[in-house]
Amino acid sequence: MPFGVLVIGPAGAGKTRFCAALQTYGDVQSRSIHVINLDPAAEDIPYRTDVDVREIVTVDDAMAELKFGPNGGLVYCMEYLLAHSEWLEEKLLAFAPEDTILFDCPGQLELYTHVPVMPRLVALMQRWDTRLCVAYMMDSVSLGEPSKFIAGALAGLSAMLQLPLPRLTVLSKTDLLAPDVLEEFLEIGSATTFLQTCDNRNTKFLKLTTVIANLLDDHSLLSYVPFSIHDEDSPSHVLTYADQLTQYTDEAEVRIPRDIEGEEEEDPDTAFKALMHHHR
Ligand SMILES: Nc1nc2c(ncn2[C@@H]2O[C@H](COP(=O)(O)OP(=O)(O)OP(=O)(O)O)[C@@H](O)[C@H]2O)c(=O)[nH]1
User: Fold this and answer.
1) Which of 29-38, 100-109, 163-172, 258-267 is the least confident region?
2) Whose CA is nearest to atom 4 of ligand 1?
3) What are phi and psi of 184, to 5 degrees?
4) 147-206: per-residue pLDDT in tens?
C-alpha cells in the first residue's frame, strides 16, 4: 500500500511549489515521489504529474457546459471525481508499496468544511489501503498579525476536523520571514505566548484571542514544520515528519543514492543543493 500526503491549504499558500520541491528532492535521493494533481482548475503545473484529475474533468468545462461559477464548478468536479472513483482507484493500484504520493489539492477551503466530498474521498482511499496523512500549508504571512495568525490556524483546524488523519502543519514561505522572527516563533512553541509577544494586538478582542490561543495550544497546533522552496533542507525535514506519521520507514527499503552515469557517485544532499540552487 502506497503512502500518501494530502497537501491542503488556502489558495496561494504554496501547495504546488511544495509538491514540486519534494518531487525534485525525491529525484535526487532516488526516492520514488509521485504527484497527483487533484485540482480540476490547476494551470501551469511545475511538476511531473503521474495522475491528473483534469484527464476526466475540468472546472473550465463545468463552467462552459453546465454554466457553473468557479466555486460551484469546483464542487461539481470533485463530486464527479467521487462518482468516478474507480478511475482514481485504478491509478492508485498501479503504485508500488514504497511509493510516496503527494496529492496536490484545490485551495478552496469550503471543500473541507462545507461539503462532504473530501472526507468521502479520504474514506475511499483508506479502503483501498492507502496510508494517508494531511499536510496543511499555512503561509508565513500569518505570523505578521495576531488576527491573521488566528484565522490561518483556525482554518487549518476546521479543515482537519473533517479529515480524520494524522496531520502536520507546514509553515510555508519561511524565506520571507526575518530569520529571528522564525526562530523566535519556533522556539516559543505556544500560541498564547506568541500572541503575547505581538505588539499589534487588538485589545478589543484580547480575551477572545487568548481563549482561542489556549485552544490551539491544547491541540498542539503550534507544532509547525518550516518550509521554503529556497531551503534545500526543507523537503527532508517535512518528509521525516510525514514518514513518522504514516510509519513509511517500516516498510520502505533503504535506498542507495543514484549513481550518475559515468560520474563519481555524488552525495545526494550535495546534488539536491546544487539542483535547488539551479532552480533559483
Ligand atoms: N518566497 C517564496 N515564495 C513561494 C514559496 N512557495 C510558493 N511561493 C510562491 O507563492 C505563490 C503561490 O504558490 P503555489 O505553490 O502556486 O500556491 P498554491 O497553494 O498551490 O496555490 P493555488 O493553486 O492557487 O491553491 C507562487 O507565486 C509561488 O512562487 C516559498 O517557499 N517561498
Assistant:
1) 258-267
2) 173
3) -65, -45
4) 888 888 888 888 888 888 998 999 999 999 988 888 888 887 777 777 777 766 666 677
What is this structure's pTM?
A: 0.85
Distance between Cα 139 and ligand 1 center (Å):
9
Q: What does the mean pLDDT of the chain come to?
A: 84
Atom 8, ligand 1: residue with shortest CA distance: 14
Ligand 1 pocket test, candidate residues 15, 17, 103, 136, most atoms within 8 A of CB: 17
Distance 16 CA to ligand 1 centre (A): 7
Phi-psi region at 104: left, alpha or beta (left = phi > 0; alpha = psi -120 to 50): beta
Compute the radius of gyration of the chain from its Cα atoms. Answer: 20
As beta bridge partners, residue 52 has 37
Q: How far is the CA of 152 from the centre of ligand 1 (A)?
A: 16
Percentage, residues of the chain above pLDDT 70: 84
Question: Thinking of the domain 3-143+165-175+224-256, which architecture would CATH place it in?
Answer: 3-Layer(aba) Sandwich (3.40)
Whole-number Å distance, alpha carbon 204 to ligand 1 midpoint, is 33
